[in-house]
Write a structure and sequence with these properties.
183 residues; mainly alpha; 0% strand; elongated
Length: 183
């Protein structure tokens, strides 16, 4: 059965994708800022555990949003008639976007490895609902998780900057529109 997408359905789908894009971008900004802050926290800080739990919960939410985004995005991209009109920088954009999606998968998974191997549960917003332990408590595995999470996160940040630079003209246009609306 083939579903024919009307212009209205395409517009709604596109709006949902943009909403997910910016929601995830803001969550990743929170995760990066929180992660950088948490690295420097001492073990005796009272709010350390709730902050780590919030960071882990946000990572789980971002993974869920990624699943929703891929669910919306794949049909849109597969039905995109402009695929035949490849632009000169298509390959560069494809590599950056593919890398971004891979980082969106592997950074949270490395955090999951880090928590599990370190003997820490991933509890959702203090509800006592914990995700299953997929890895046994193991110091060497926890160290590997720490290094992977750290380096993948910073490399992910570099690719986000590359993505922002690729989309600079588009972002400038959005900022101009917002500025005109606020004046």
């Amino acid at each position: 059965m083939t579903v024919i997408a009307t212009p209205k359905i395409k517009k709604i789908t596109q709006e949902r994708l943009w909403f997910l894009h910016w929601l995830m971008a803001s969550f990743y900004l929170l995760l990066f800022a929180g992660g950088i802050y948490m690295i420097h926290l001492g073990r005796d800080v009272l709010y350390r555990r709730p902050l780590y739990d919030f960071h882990k919960t946000l990572g789980v939410i971002v993974m869920s949003l990624l699943l929703a985004r891929i669910t919306f995005l794949l049909p849109v991209q597969l039905n995109n008639k402009r695929l035949s009109q490849l632009k000169k920088n298509w390959m560069q954009k494809f590599v950056v976007h593919t890398s971004l999606y891979l980082f969106m998968i592997f950074v949270p998974l490395s955090g999951y490895l880090l928590s599990n191997a370190g003997g820490h549960d991933i509890i959702i917003f203090g509800t006592n609902i914990a995700f299953p332990q997929l890895f046994v408590k193991n110091r060497q595995l926890a160290l590997l998780g720490t290094n992977l999470h750290f380096w993948l996160s910073y490399t992910f940040l570099v690719f986000i900057i590359l993505h922002t630079l690729q989309q600079w003209r588009y972002l400038r246009g959005i900022w101009r529109r917002f500025y005109k609306m606020s004046v």
